[in-house]
Amino acid sequence: MTWLKDVPPTVTQPGGVEIKPVLAVPPWVQGLIFDCDGTVVDTLPLHYVAWEETFADLELTCPLAFLIRHNGKPTGQIVALYNAEFGQSIDVDKFTADKERRTYALLEQARPLEPVATLARHHQGRLPMAVVSGSNRANVERALRAAGLRELFPVVLTADDGLPPKPAPDLFLEAARRLGVEPALCQAFEDADAGLEAIRRAGMLATDVRPFGGGYRHE
């Protein structure tokens, strides 16, 4: 078996045959850690609607490329970065509350992101598993439950747990600690550059799920 680690969506072999990467777990791995939105649950289209509507209320727009660049960071941090980059003075707390309220309402539509969710289901009861997210607990819990995945993860860490956000490694390191697994024996799955950097800083095997449909999609 092979596993994805920073490889393109397809690899062209001699003779022009395209081989798609395989999402799998190496035999030495003893714990699995998943980001939530855009990784194990296909919620980023819902989040984007909430972003769009909240900006529209202020007669503003936000480039998708900006959200892609800052994917994985807490909402308030993204709004503050938007203010700095686009010369705005949005009330960060009010915008964050409005955006998260809209997101929560939409998350009842959340669905699993396959094949990442398939991999997690396959390893239920075989390996300890956790979710770590830069989103708030209410949204993460709602998304996992709507997608029918909550029971897979005994450990769920969110922005509400008070740890430094990605790309700091703290969320991943705390998840490993709670799972009782050494960080070097963990494989972690992400759809955002900030999250992948956090995994690497934690000393874990970083698996980018974007070639499998994760992350924001430009369409």
Polypeptide structure, described:
With 219 residues, the chain is α/β, with parallel strands linked by helices. The chain folds into two domains: 13-43 and 111-212, HAD superfamily/HAD-like (Rossmann fold, 3-Layer(aba) Sandwich); 44-108. It is 38% helix and 12% strand. The protein has helices spanning 44-57, 64-69, 75-86, 92-106, 116-122, 137-146, 170-179, 193-201, and strands at residues 11-13, 17-19, 31-34, 129-132, 155-157, 186-190, 205-208. The strands form two sheets. The protein has a five-stranded parallel sheet, with helices on one face. A hairpin with a 3-residue loop joins strand 1 (11-13) and strand 2.
Short description:
This protein has 219 residues and is α/β, with parallel strands linked by helices.
Task: Please render the helix and strand layout as text.
Elements: E1 11-13, E2 17-19, E3 31-34, H1 44-57, H2 64-69, H3 75-86, H4 92-106, H5 116-122, E4 129-132, H6 137-146, E5 155-157, H7 170-179, E6 186-190, H8 193-201, E7 205-208
Parallel strand pairs: 3-4, 3-6, 4-5, 6-7
Antiparallel strand pairs: 1-2
Helix pairs in contact: 1-4, 3-4
CATH H-level homologous superfamily name of the largest domain:
HAD superfamily/HAD-like
CATH topology of the largest domain: Rossmann fold
Distance between the termini: 32 Å
Unreliable residue runs:
1-14
Compute the CA-based radius of gyration: 17 Å
Compressed to H and E, one letter per element, the order equals EEEHHHHHEHEHEHE
Computed structural class? alpha/beta
The count of DSSP E runs of length 2 or more, i.e. the number of strands, is 7
H/I helix tally:
8
Helix content: 25-40%
Percent strand: 5-15%
What is the level 1 CATH name of the largest domain?
Alpha Beta
Architecture of the largest domain, according to CATH? 3-Layer(aba) Sandwich
